[in-house]
Amino acid sequence: MTSLNVDEAKGLIEEVLEVYPEKAREDRAKHLTVAEPGQETKGCITSNRKALPGVLTNRGCAYAGSKGVVWGPIKDMIHISHGPVGCGQYSRAGRRNYYVGTTGVDSFGTMNFTSDFQEKDIVFGGDKKLEALIDEVEQLFPLNKGISVQSECPIGLIGDDIEAVSKEKAKELGKSVVPVRCEGFRGVSQSLGHHIANDAVRDWVLSGENKKEVGPYDVALIADYNIGGDAWSSRILLEEMGLNVVTQWSGDGTLNEVKNNVNVKLNLLHCYRSMNYLARHMEEKYDIPWVEFNFFGPTKTAESLRKIATFFDETIQANAEKVIAKYEAQTQAIIEKYRPRLEGKKVMLYVGGLRPRHTIGAYQDLGMEVIGTGYEFGHNDDYERTLEDIKHATLIYDDVTGYEFEEFVKKLQPDLIGGGIKEKYIFQKMGIPFRQMHSWDYSGPYHGYDGFAIFARDMDMTLNNPCWNELKAPWKKIA
Amino acid sequence: MPSVMLRENEGKLSLYIAKKDLEAMVVSLEHDAIDKWGGKIELDDGSAWYLDPLDAKPKLPKTLRVRRA
User: Fold this and answer.
1) Most buried residue among A38, A122, A124, A231 by CB atoms closer than 10 A?
2) How far apart are alpha carbons A74 and A34 in whole angstroms?
3) Which bin fits B41, alpha (ψ -120 to 50), beta or left (φ > 0)?
């Protein structure tokens, strides 16, 4: 395919928007833009707004943001999906937050606990049921370290007092019981769920009472959800650098690690979108600076290692260089192997959190070009950060609708699309190679130098798969 | 009157408005003395805010309430 210039890309947006009624067209136009070189980054796009009624959006809800992303991966806690059974059951174990532990004994990551609301609970209130549920959970799984109550929509609608129940039960059990008011109808996307979950951690878990002496190299690895083992492959590099990772959450994290987060020198923040609230809070209250980093692809990894090292003394800085040098040969071999197979290929992304910008570097390391990217639930600050990473005439789409995304793809004909399960089969049926960039298509990890090897292999495996030539029936092919 | 967080970023003052997800650098601050700190805050995106002057420069980062100027 050919690259579009800025004017052509703008024309494409207009063309795609033509089918909408006038009001919808005006609204959607604000969410689509073309990034130009040297563009003013402030307010280039409207984001974090309610999706239009009638269009197909890919967003999740506040419950998804809290239970699925921030709280869910904390492995030694029991996260009760308080409300009807479906929300918990259909999202159960979907995010592949890996952990070490024995499920059902001391870890509960892939299990689903729910209060299974029925009509009578809506009518008479569900607080009694929640009490009974907490008692039962405690009896069946006595090794749990704490309980969180993740509210689903009806809890907020009928006005149950889960805080009171939690307080009472916490006293009775002598464990943390955290009520999280993450009813699905709050906010416009899962993003508010992240914020609510962050606030719950702030109010119910973090405390100055846990303050202890801090070692000079103690750091926290936060907002890495260990999708397919990502946090582990990140942690290896940090430890090789001589940093002491004292807490790592929420991927493969424990409640004690969260509590211990106040005892670090630096917060290493991977997913800015979902935990910046907490990082900012800890900076203000506990004097812990934070830094964003990006461990996708060798260029960005090296950049990030150096950036992290600037917060410490020469020993760490020298170590960072050593780590970078150590993996150079390995990375070079990967690039030599895969770059010729992937060079010049065009990629379109539509993901959430940090990946629409963080993975760009990894694609560039393989000689691929990202020609379109967008966030499901990004905010203004995410888009500002994105513009630093992209090159000329990149299409930017916020909360893109099913129709718009399909039309963009038809026109731009990318060689690879990275998105989620909801888009996957549409594009595969259109004959375009597709990778799930939420769950790494059941592969991973993709972080760090070891992850890059897997990333490169996966992209090659998808893009150069012979199946893409077999989509047309043999008798319909032109000889 | 939004709550904003003022922080020092590489020696420069920046302002973060949580409600707007706006992170902007402070271009000018009306009072920047030891005994009086605050007043009109101008940002690099052109907007301006007003912070009731404080008696002393606070320890940053700090969450404060500001008004539209």
Assistant:
1) A231
2) 39
3) beta
* Predicted TM-score of the model (pTM): 0.94
Model pLDDT for residues B8-44, shown as the tens digit of each residue? 877 788 888 877 777 888 999 999 888 899 999 998 8
Q: Which residues contact A68 (CB under 8 A, 6 or more apart)?
A: A60, A91, A94, A95, A190, A193
Write the ipTM: 0.87
Burial of A43 (0-12, 13-18, 19+ CB in 10 A): middle
Q: Which residue has the tokens 């959970």?
A: A137
The residues near A312 (Cβ < 8 Å, ≥ 6 apart) are: A216, A217, A243, A265, A266
With 0-12 CB in 10 A as exposed, 13-18 as middle and 19+ as buried, what is A472? exposed
Q: In degrees rounded to 5, what are phi and psi of residue A436?
A: -75, 120
Per 3-state DSSP, chain B is made up of helix, strand and coil in percentages (nearest 5) of 5, 65, 30
Pairing of strands B48-54, B37-43: antiparallel
Residue from A41, A42, A310, A311 to probe the interface with B (highest B Cβ count within 10 Å)? A42
What residue ranges in A335-476 does DSSP mark as E strands? 346-349, 369-373, 394-397, 416-419, 434-436
Distance CA A263, CA A319 (A): 23
Interchain pair A283, B61: CB under 8 A: yes
Which residues touch A444 (CB under 8 Å, ≥6 apart)?
Answer: A96, A227, A228, A229, A230, A451, A454
In chain A, which residues have their Cβ closer than 8 Å to the Cβ of B21? Answer: 48, 379-382
Each residue's pLDDT tens digit, A25-62: 999 999 999 987 666 666 678 899 999 999 999 999 99
pLDDT at A1: 47
Closest CA to A266 of A249, A286, A252, A250: A286
Instruction: Indicate left, alpha or beta for A196 from its phi (over 0: left) and psi (-120 to 50: alpha).
Output: alpha
For residue B60, give the chain A residue with the closest CA.
A284
From chain B, the residues in CB contact with A382 under 8 A are: 21
What is the nearest CA distance from A200 to chain B, expressed in angstroms? Answer: 17
CA triple A407-A354-A337, angle to 5 deg: 80
| Separation between Cα atoms, residue A381 and residue A392, nearest integer Å | 20
Q: What was the pLDDT predicted at A479? A: 66
Is A82 one of the catalytic residues?
no
Query: Which among A276, A237, A230, A272 is positioned nearest to A253, based on CA atoms?
Result: A230
Chain A hits for B7, Cβ within 8 Å? 280, 283
Of B22, B44, B63, the CB nearest to A380: B22
- The reply to whether B45 touches chain A by the CB within 8 Å rule is yes
Query: Number of Cβ pairs closer than 8 Å across A and B?
Result: 25
> CB–CB of A202/A278 below 8 Å?
yes
Structure tokens at A264: 């670090």
Count CB neighbours of A18 within 10 A.
8
Q: Which of A53, A41, A127 is nearest to A83 (CA)?
A: A127
Q: Which of A9, A64, A197, A393 is catalytic?
A: A64
